[in-house]
Amino acid sequence: MVSIEKKLSLATDKNLFPVIDKVLNERRLSFEDGINLFKTHDLNTLGLLANFVTQKKNGNYAYFVINRQINPTNVCSLDCKFCAFATIDKNDPKAYELSTDEILKKVRYAVENGASEVHIVGGLHPDWSFEDYINIVKQIRHYFPTVHIKAFTAVEIDYLSRISGLSYEEVFLRLKEVGLDSIPGGGAEIFSPRARRVIAPEKIGWKKYLQIHKIAHRLGIFSTATMLYGHIETVEERVDHILKIREAQDETGGFTCFIPLAYQPENNELGIQEHTSGIDDLKTIAVSRLLLDNLPHIKAYWVMIGEKVAQIALNFGADDIDGTIMEEKIAHFAGAKSPTAQQKEKLVRLIKEAGKIPVERDTLYNPIKIYDEQPV
Ligand code: V47
Q1: pLDDT value, residue 372
Q2: Which atom of ligand 1 has the smallest separation from the CA of 223?
Q3: Mean of the pLDDT values across residues 73-95?
């Protein structure tokens, strides 16, 4: 077998030589290394390096989850320019609010179809009270005692704190008491204040986003982290975003996974025409894998980059492709071309074709089933 050193000796971009040396010797990469990795055209070396790190962390395993996404409402007091899902106007024909019964029906369908997780995010509804949000979690937990409830982004936690007058800690303790298990990584967008002023001027900034996640971690609530890329941000802003997440993870260790979210350009106010390219998707995943040496998992979210690129990304640093999801609104309102649900068998096949061993996981990456027996 050809050694990794031998393979990497074919690298053509001299800016990557110091990075190769650091990766092989398990030394932390710098901001400048991140920029050089984003700017390289030597995709083969980037993929080799990222896959080398993934294999060290996760062997040949690649994960998926049987889950359902539920968005209780799209009515939202924020007016983020990149968002095609939410509406500020309750009377907008596309506005909707799910009742508790409708939410429970969706959870029931998910659980009956093998879901171990429900992933719940939605708008900051101006008329919903703190207790309305609490009740969503409470009712799900009452009827479905074992399903993992991953609910409410840091942006929603901040909103719940504001409408209840409770501190972030107190909000989390209430949610935990009624059944919350973990929180998702949405709402991070891009941390750069410059870009944030344009794309999400009213949303909490990066300091609060990370503060909320770190508080969650200290209370034993794990979370994921995201980055929305492919809009107006610069490569420097991407690297800065990723390194801020690395710094937070050094403090708490509570992020299970990092998910680069490819911007979907339709039906919103930003006026960008293009979807991200496959090369940019692969680079962003690979660079994330290399910079985030303290995060266990990197997700290639098939919904936003498509199944084909997600599958290739499993050899570019990703070890997870998310899940069956059962329905999806946020990316599809904004023009995502992928399906809105996925069969488990398809996820297994995508992973096997990438030469990896599929593992159905729970939210915290405990294996539920390993599919190592049959070939593709
Ligand atoms: O916060 C909104 C993003 C996020 C667009 O935690 C958009 O495991 C692209 O966070 N184009 C919600 N993205 C989705 C999310 C997520 C998805 C899958 C797994 C996990 C996880 C989290 O979607 C929002 C925002 O950053 N978003 N509009 C758009 N036009």
Answers
A1: 87
A2: 6
A3: 96
Give me ligand 1 centre to Cα 261, in Å.
Answer: 6
Calculate ∠ Cα 120-124-125, nearest 5°.
105
pTM: 0.97
Name the helix (H) or strand (E) containing 369.
strand 367-370
- The label of the residue with tokens 């909490």 reads 204
Ligand 1 center from residue 238 Cα (angstroms) = 16
Of 141, 123, 146, give the one whose Cα is nearest residue 177. 141
With 0-12 CB in 10 A as exposed, 13-18 as middle and 19+ as buried, what is 85? buried
Nearest CA to ligand 1 atom 30: 264
What is the Cα–Cα distance from 291 to 312, expressed in whole angstroms? 20
Burial pattern 161-178, b for ≥16 Cβ within 10 A else e, equals bebbeeebeebbebbeeb
For residue 166, the CA-to-ligand 1 centroid distance in Å is 26
Nearest atom in ligand 1 to the alpha carbon of residue 188 is: 26
Amino acid at 148: H
**Residue 24 pLDDT:** 97
Q: Give the closest residue (by CA) to ligand 1 atom 9.
A: 263
For residue 150, give the ligand 1 atom closest to its CA.
Answer: 6
- pLDDT at residue 213 above 90? yes
- How far is the centre of ligand 1, averaged over its atoms, from the C-alpha of 306 (Å)? 14
Q: What is the C-alpha to C-alpha distance for residues 109 and 69, in angstroms, rounded to an integer?
A: 12
- Which residue's CA is minimally distant from atom 17 of ligand 1? 186
All structural domains of the chain, each given as residue ranges with its CATH number in brackets, are 4-53 (no CATH), 59-370 (3.20.20.70)
pLDDT digits (tens, 9 = 90+) for 314-327: 999 999 999 999 99
